[in-house]
Design goal:
Elements: E1 2-3, E2 22-23, H1 26-33, E3 42-45, H2 48-54, E4 62-71, E5 74-81, E6 88-96, H3 100-111, E7 116-124, E8 147-150, H4 154-157, E9 166-169, H5 172-178
Parallel strand pairs: 1-2, 3-4, 3-6, 6-7, 7-8, 8-9
Antiparallel strand pairs: 4-5
Length: about 180
């Protein structure tokens, strides 16, 4: 079972020795945030890849698409499609490593009038403890008000339990159901 695979071609890395069963953590996340317009008005995607992977899960939410261009370690993010003025927005992606793309996306959304910006990533692959940038005192603190992650990478997320702004969603029940 693979949850929120980054690119569909990755399913072929198993070379036919195993059959990949593809699943998503988005239904778990939706149970947590509630119905459209209840706690979140719009869903933003940091790039077209995330939009293509996840948009069908978010019926009833306004959809927003950003675009990113990487230049070494820097990212330039722009608002490509949608309006976030006076909305509560959540940025959705499959994987976070440094958090740079999510942070830059959140900044752009706030510059365009978003009232609140949250983030959700299925897999917390923070390298070199980059998650510390998002906690109180970190250089990226305060832009993303709540940062939802699943515990699909427990070696990372076990360190984040109870630390603001992180909210860790347990995927155990989803795995048992999907078996």
């Amino acid at each position: 079972m693979i949850y929120d695979i980054h690119t569909l071609q990755n399913r072929f890395y198993l070379y036919g020795h195993a059959l990949a069963s593809l699943h998503s953590t988005i239904p778990l996340f939706l149970k947590h945030i509630g119905k459209p317009k209840e706690n979140v008005d719009a869903v933003a995607f940091p790039d077209e890849g995330a939009m293509k992977r996840f948009k069908d899960h978010f019926h009833g939410f306004d959809l927003v698409v950003c675009a990113k261009v990487r230049d070494g370690d820097t990212r330039k993010v722009t608002l490509q499609e949608g309006n976030v003025e006076n909305l509560r927005v959540i940025v959705v992606d499959d994987l976070v490593r440094s958090g740079g793309t999510l942070y830059e996306c959140a900044k752009v959304l706030k510059q365009h009038g978003a009232v609140n910006v949250f983030a959700f990533c299925a897999h917390a692959g923070f390298n070199q403890e980059n998650w510390k940038q998002f906690i109180n005192g970190g250089k990226k603190f305060g832009v993303i008000e709540k940062f939802y992650l699943t515990n699909s990478v427990p070696t990372v997320t076990q360190k984040l339990i109870g630390i603001e702004p992180f909210v860790i969603l347990d995927i155990t029940e989803s795995i048992l159901t999907d078996l």
